[in-house]
Amino acid sequence: MASLSCFRTLALGACNMFHKGSRPLVLCGPSGSGKSTLLKKLFEEFPDTFGYSVSHTTRSPRPGEEDGKHYHFTTKDKMQKQIEQDEFLETATFSGNMYGTSKRAVEEVQKAGKICVLDVEVQGVKQIKQSSLDPLYIFIKAPSIEELEKRLRARKTETEDALQRRLSIARLEIEYELF
Ligand SMILES: Nc1ncnc2c1ncn2[C@@H]1O[C@H](COP(=O)(O)OP(=O)(O)OP(=O)(O)O)[C@@H](O)[C@H]1O
User: Fold this and answer.
1) In angstroms, what is the span from residue 125 Cα to ligand 1's centroid?
2) Predicted ipTM?
């Protein structure tokens, strides 16, 4: 995959050039652009260099998902309180569930001596830009909306409704260059 070597070079190069301490990387791009695919390969290839921050969510765990590993599973009340206490870098609501990245989740990766990588939606990017995190941003560009649709259909993870929702958000993100 050509884009993987570009991404690898960019991620490592950016960290070598700018990195003092452990400056996080924020990865963003439309649904289907390949963020998870690239991250999976990056973590496989450099397990000691990069670490993923564990997000919070108020949705129920799916079979096989472990608390603290895949997500920090929490309640709306608890998460709301933590947001009020300024413990989150970014939060979003999707399909009635809250999601977010806590400051502590990033610090835990940094304490382990790794560069923290965050995979966030456009709303999250806007919030992170207002925070003190000061990360490096990597935008994964989509080849075309048609290609995104083809990839998301082939991934077979979405219902038709969810797929259409993702595509209309992607279309707006691309048209208005929201990133
Ligand atoms: N460069 C590529 N060329 C072709 N197919 C790809 C490429 N990158 C990823 N894919 C495929 O496209 C689908 C979407 O990729 P992926 O899940 O990584 O996207 P994503 O950006 O993380 O999406 P989301 O934001 O919805 O989680 C996957 O089935 C993946 O195998």
Assistant:
1) 20
2) 0.95
166 is catalytic: yes
Residue 7 CA to ligand 1 centre (angstroms):
14
Q: Domains (ranges, CATH) in the chain? A: 25-176 (3.40.50.300)
Q: 106: which residues sit within 8 A by CB, 6+ positions away?
A: 24, 53, 89, 116, 118, 133
Q: Is 154 within 8 Å of 45 (Cβ atoms)?
A: no
Closest residue CA from atom 29 of ligand 1:
155
Average pLDDT, 10 consecutive residues per value, the chain (179 residues): 70 61 87 93 94 95 92 98 97 89 96 94 91 93 92 93 91 77
Nearest CA to ligand 1 atom 15: 34
pTM listed for this prediction: 0.83
171 is catalytic: no
